[in-house]
Amino acid sequence: MGSTTALEHPFDLATDLTPAGEGRFLGRTSPGYSNMVGPFGGITAATMLRAVLDDPRCSGSPLSITVNYAGPVADGEFTIDADPVRTNNTTQHWVVTMSQHDAVVTTATVVCALRRDTWSDTEITPPAVPAPEAVEAAVTPEFPAWLGNYEMRFVEGGVPFEADSDGSPTSTTTLWVRDTPARTLDHLSLTAMCDIFFPRVMLRLGRMVPAGTVSFTVYFHTDAGQFPSDPTPYVLATARGQHFGNGFFDQSAQLWTADGTPLATSHQVVYFKG
Amino acid sequence: MGSTTALEHPFDLATDLTPAGEGRFLGRTSPGYSNMVGPFGGITAATMLRAVLDDPRCSGSPLSITVNYAGPVADGEFTIDADPVRTNNTTQHWVVTMSQHDAVVTTATVVCALRRDTWSDTEITPPAVPAPEAVEAAVTPEFPAWLGNYEMRFVEGGVPFEADSDGSPTSTTTLWVRDTPARTLDHLSLTAMCDIFFPRVMLRLGRMVPAGTVSFTVYFHTDAGQFPSDPTPYVLATARGQHFGNGFFDQSAQLWTADGTPLATSHQVVYFKG
């Protein structure tokens, strides 16, 4: 596609957008990032954010994004409309819509912010884990395809559907993860990584059930210039479900650098049958 | 105002809306729910949700809401536009905008859902606390005014700005809370209660600093028919900050019924100076 900033990394190609007038961008789904049905939610979220970052009106760097998966995204082309509804001194508020054939398939709101140095503290703590090299890299299934873009080293709560099991009393998953091939971290790749956790309900039940994210939020704790410079950075990612019932559950996640700096906290509510 | 469903409770009056064409509602800020600057964020969020629930096109009951506080809400009238951008069998997706004098002051996305009985479990646990009657009701400051609408019984992490202090090593607040005068719980009052926590940064620093919610999300774990029938229901509410830095912090909260059923989980990212 037409962006002059596209790199050759599959992630950058998958999120590449072509400007088509003020606030409008054209994109296309990537088979390499496909999920059970439609694209991996993380790549859709990253693409929604990329429309904002590609827009010349963008001010500041991402502070938060909420993505609502309104309907299935069909393989092929899509249109993203990004509207900076309010720009303040410190924050800029965007409403973003992805549509196909005039039907809305995804909505998002994005807040960008100009950060400044303040008092700082982290109350949460990263899980105690072995170094990534001491944890075996998982051989993930070939399907869904998007798994092939991530190296995953599970410390707790690995792939739940490799074999039927009795399930697990808790839904916690903790893993080391990085892009494969390697790619330096930024807000786009971090957004996608916040959605790499298998649906928690499958861990609990020990089997595959229909499930899909409905609403997904990321709070970014890292400014644009604060990402690790490591070109092959491992991210420590942990998530668990909070409440399951009535066909939905919610999940909270934390993503950390290898040296224990919080990159992002993330939350989602997920539909399931089971 | 013109709604025929308005009760005389101050909360219902404060969130009352007058229909003004398909998807458009007119409202007015309430002095009794004013904050330091503009209205209490919880009442604004509840009013955004009420526009969806008042809309005859609404299908299902609230599953999630994300509210972005885009700019200051001035005292006086406002317009809410609510657009059901996608209706599926199980979920309905709304984009909602509040404006004053043609400037966007608040945006929101709302997901409503038709729930059905499924496997259920709660992995989080409510904090161990005394019964509400065993905890002293706080004498909250007269300013900001919105505090007067809630009875608060703090178990941990009370009002941080009653007197200067050295601050606290953690930002956890746990309290029993209910509307005053009493009101049965519903999705609207629960939305507002998810935002009743003082900015966590003030607890940590032990003093008032400028702070304001930027983005606020609620996941509802209670269907419309599942709220306690108690007309004077206490809610057990707990929240803490996760990471503070660069002028922003995030907070996660849980709200429980008195008998330990999760009502909602909620998250927000907050601007601060300090």
The poorly predicted ranges of chain A are: 1-6
Largest sheet of chain A: 12 strands, antiparallel
Distance between the termini of chain A: 41 Å
Helix content of chain A: 10-25%
- How are the strands ordered across the major sheet of chain A? 1-2-4-5-6-3-10-13-12-11-9-8
- What is the N-to-C order of secondary-structure elements of chain A (H for helix, E for strand)? HEEHEEEEEEEHHEEEE
Mean pLDDT of chain A, as a whole number? Answer: 94
Using the coordinates shown, work out and report the CATH topology of chain A: Porin
Radius of gyration of chain A: 18 Å
Oligomer: homodimer
Morphology call of chain A: globular
What CATH first level of chain A would be assigned? Mainly Beta
Helix-strand category of chain A: mainly beta
Number of helices of chain A: 4
The overall strand count of chain A is 13
Number of domains of chain A: 1
Strand content of chain A: 35-45%
- Which chain pair has the greatest contact? A-B, 62 and 62 residues
What CATH architecture of chain A do you see?
Beta Barrel
Supply the CATH superfamily name of chain A.
Acyl-CoA thioesterase, double hotdog domain
General description of the model:
2 copies of one chain form a homodimer. Chain A is mainly β and 274 residues long. Helix content of chain A is 12%, strand content 39%. At the A-B interface, β3, β5, β6, β7 and α4 of A face β3, β5, β6, β7 and α4 of B. β11 (235-245) of chain A pairs antiparallel with β7 (121-122) of chain B. Chains A, B: InterPro entries: ACOT8-like_C, Acyl-CoA_hotdog, HotDog_dom_sf, Sec_Metab_Biosynth-Assoc, TesB_ACOT8-like_N. Chains A, B: Residues 134-271 form the Acyl-CoA thioesterase-like C-terminal domain.
